[in-house]
Specification:
This protein is mainly alpha-helical. Helix content is 47%, strand content 3%. The protein has eight helices and two strands. It has a two-stranded antiparallel ribbon.
């Protein structure tokens, strides 16, 4: 397939994803969950291009900058401790990694319910989407890491993470994680400087 036809095909695929997202946004009774902004169509097309050209997708977790970026996210989300992978939003713990705990927690300071869980505080609806896409068997730490990498890729930021374009990657991921600077969800946001320090401490290199 030549390049123009490839781009057209990817754009068509991105449009199909948007139509599917719009169709399913009101299904499943998820309106009682925390607010979440889906990746834009530009993000999705960028992610499709990255997926097409990424020959090392399966090895993303072994990339030092990806590893460090995941560590930074856990610091940002407040799950960097030993129980981070089994933490519900608000700080309580769940006991089984068989599936996302799907527990709604009332957050009085924000006036919302949230199902965010695990090291990357993934909402249940987001988890269902990425679990189906990757065929993840459970909510174990390994599956949570794989899901987080896929969420980074879906925001079109995985190439930036690998290349050490730290600030660019954080900017692209800010709507995925409410604790990142500029996320705009009304929750606590960390400074870019603090997160870069955590990233460097985890072995990440800034280009």
């Amino acid at each position: 397939m030549n390049k123009p036809l490839l781009i057209v095909s990817l754009m068509a695929g991105g449009a199909a994803l948007l139509l599917y997202a719009a169709k399913t946004a009101g299904e499943g009774g998820e309106e009682d969950d925390a607010p979440y902004e889906e990746p834009s169509w530009l993000d999705q097309i960028n992610a499709l291009l990255q997926e097409w050209t990424d020959m090392n997708k399966a090895n993303a977790a072994s990339d030092p900058n990806v590893y460090a970026f995941l560590g930074m996210l856990r610091v940002s989300e407040g799950t960097a401790g030993p129980d981070g992978y089994r933490t519900l939003v608000g700080g309580s713990l769940f006991n089984s990694f068989a599936d996302h705990p799907r527990t709604l927690v009332w957050l009085p300071n924000l006036g919302i319910n949230s199902s965010a869980a695990g090291a990357y505080q993934i909402l249940r609806k987001t988890w269902d989407g990425v679990r189906g896409k990757l065929g993840l068997p459970d909510f174990s730490p390994l599956s949570q890491d794989a899901a987080a990498i896929e969420l980074i890729r879906q925001r079109g930021a995985l190439d930036d993470v690998r290349a050490g374009r730290f600030a660019v990657a954080v900017e692209k991921c800010k709507k995925e994680w409410a604790s990142l600077p500029g996320a705009g969800y009304g929750q606590r946001e960390n400074s870019l400087a603090r997160l870069e320090t955590a990233y460097r401490q985890a072995g990440g290199v800034v280009a």
